[in-house]
Amino acid sequence: MSNNPDLAIPTVIDDVATQPVSLGREILIVDDVPANLVALEAALAPLQRPIVKASSGREALAYLLDKNFSLLLLDVQMPIMDGFETAALIRGRERTKHLPIIFITAHHHDQAAVLRAYRLGAVDFLTKPIEPAILLAKASVFVSLQDRTEELASERFQREFDATRREYENDALRRQMEQEHAAKVELARLNAALAETDQHKDEFLAILGHELRNPLAPLRTAIDLVKGHPDTPLSERTIDILDRQTEMLTRLVEDLLDLSRINANKIELRPEPGDLRTLVQAAVDTSRPAVEQRRHALALEVGPEPVHVVADRVRLIQVVTNLINNAARYTELGGKIAVACGIVDGRAFVRISDNGIGIPAELLPRIFDMFVQERVRSDGSGGLGLGLALSRQLVQMHHGTITARSGGRDTGSSFELRLPLAGPPDVPAAHLRTDAVQPLARPVVTALRTVVVDDNADARELVADLLRSRGHVVMTAGDGHQGLVMIRDHRPDVAIVDLGLPGIDGLTLAQQLREQCPDLRTRLVALTGYGLAGDLQRTKEAGFDAHLVKPASAAAILAALAPATP
Questions:
Q1: How high is the pLDDT of residue 445?
Q2: Which residues contact 44 (CB under 8 A, 6 or more apart)?
Q3: Class of domain 269-420
Q4: pLDDT at 53 over 70
Q5: Residue 12's pLDDT is what?
Q6: How far apart are alpha carbons 36 and 105 in whole angstroms?
Q7: Over the chain, what is the mean pLDDT?
Q8: In sequence order, what are the residues at sequence separation of 6 or more whose Cβ sits closer than 8 angstroms to the Cβ of residue 203?
Q9: pLDDT tens digit string along 94-148?
Q10: C-alpha angle 519/521/525, rounded to 5°?
Q11: Of 304, 307, 416, 502, which residue is least crowded by CB atoms under 10 Å?
């Protein structure tokens, strides 16, 4: 026998095993009329069996809790609990379900009532006035039957008890096995969830490092150029690069800080009345460089009537700007973006739609969750997964809603936010801001033929400028295919290659170069935002000679050329 408490036989069953299997020798009669009880007792006196009288169904049930009876005479018409209800409760208990019941009634019942009585286990159904001799004869049959079957009942009870015991043990064992299986499944689920959480943490940290290094790389290179030529004026292109990348880095850090503030309930809105159309126009103007950089066509549709809202101007522009930037980012070059603003169903709305890469159906329910990388572009980039989470929280703080729709991959997407309308306001003037800049880099020794492959135009051109400032000859490529052909055909002394390239990535580019040109003497330098030990190992296995982590200093970039220097 198992020591498991779930498999232990309950005390109730053990107690039943020690009880006599006899139904008992007493007869229970139940009637709410005292005179009827006396008459029934007198009619049954010749049986010489003890008679117990009850005046209600409840009293009868109380007797049945403590005693076993050989026969029950049960009146049908009783207040509170009638005979049928009493019989149903008696039949519902294992101990009394085989007790013979004779129903007694003062009224003639139809066939349905009689059938109900027999379904409840009645052995007979008598109508008052009852002939004592008939009642005695019927009762005698059951009393005699009880006497003759006493021994057989005992054996049958034991068999039934044994069967019940086995059934209970089997059920308990089955429950235990099911519980153990469920516990194992839950443990596996928790382990998987922990592993997934840990993986998400590692992925987030890696992506965060990558996203931070991307704008830092051109900034670092530009600063090194400035340091090398402190007396040389900055070119307009360098100033633009510094401005864009600083803005990108600032926006990333601000998103992180905003999410932290929101989660800590430390962010405060500064709502003011205004026209939503002007806020949307400001967001479009802010996003225009990102839209134009990817050669998208942007259509703005606003109605002639003001859309009055009370909102934090800066935060709402931040939300709409983020949605437009996302549309630009996740739409292939030369796509279409539509921005609409107006009133629908008594609420203000802003809708940003695109014909971009769309949102997979399985990702749509989680699109606004924190650290979920919304989508992955063909070049492998997918962002940090902060923008939409931050946008939703800011919109909710304005008592609004934001929803996403998409038919799936390559079907475009649409984001719509709705806000409560307000009364006519004074529209505040738009805020403008400007940023400052700094100083440039140094001459060179022996000229090398170099190729720079990077899809980030700013990073690519700044590295090229650094190399040119040292007297090297530089060719540039913006994607993996172009870079592969350029290096293969021109056989430069050095090629500096970013890993996250569209078309084919940097690792594949290096592998194909080593396979297609086994005699290639070009020194391959990986320049990337990923710098974990595994990343360095992968670049080495792919055929790179050096691995630089963004933002790499000018000295580090130039030092990576050294082994190829004559």
A1: 52
A2: 27, 29, 51, 135, 136, 139
A3: alpha beta
A4: yes
A5: 42
A6: 11
A7: 82
A8: none
A9: 888 888 899 988 766 667 777 887 888 788 888 888 889 989 988 888 888 777 7
A10: 130
A11: 304
Cα(95)–Cα(518) distance, rounded to whole angstroms? 91
Separation CA 507–CA 484 (nearest Å): 11
**195-229 confidence digits (pLDDT tens):** 877 776 676 666 666 666 767 777 777 777 777 77
Task: Decide if 213 contacts 529 (C-beta within 8 A).
Answer: yes
Provide the CB-side half-sphere exposure for 340 (13 A, CA): 12
Give the contacts of 32 (CB within 8 A, at least 6 positions apart). Answer: 55, 56, 75, 77, 78, 79
Where are the domain boundaries for CATH 3.30.565.10 in the chain?
A: 269-420
Fold (topology level) of 212-268+439-566: Rossmann fold (3.40.50)
Determine if the peptide bond prior to 551 is cis (ω within 30°): yes
Give 396's DSSP letter: H
Neighbouring C-alpha atoms within 13 Å toward the C-beta of 426: 2
Q: What share of the chain is helix, strand, coil (3-state, %, to 5)?
A: 50, 15, 35
Q: Are 357 and 328 in contact (CB under 8 A)?
A: no
| Residue indicated by tokens 């959480």 | 197
Q: Which of 44-58, 100-114, 243-257, 291-305 has the lowest mean pLDDT?
A: 243-257
Q: Are 229 and 440 spatial neighbours (Cβ–Cβ below 8 Å)? A: yes
Q: What pLDDT score was predicted for residue 16?
A: 43
Question: Helices in 264-300 by DSSP H: which ranges?
Answer: 276-293
Closest by Cα among 183, 176, 253 to 215:
253
Could you give the C-alpha distances from 114 to 28, 74, 523, in angstroms and in order? 21, 14, 103
Q: Which residue matches tokens 């940090």? A: 384
Question: In the block, which residue shows the tokens 């850090």?
Answer: 253
Q: Where in the chain is the domain with CATH 3.40.50.2300?
A: 5-148, 212-268+439-566
- The CATH H-level (homologous superfamily) assignment of domain 5-148 is Response regulator (3.40.50.2300)
- C-alpha 454/C-alpha 217 separation (Å) is 12
Residue whose token pair is 């008696």:
90
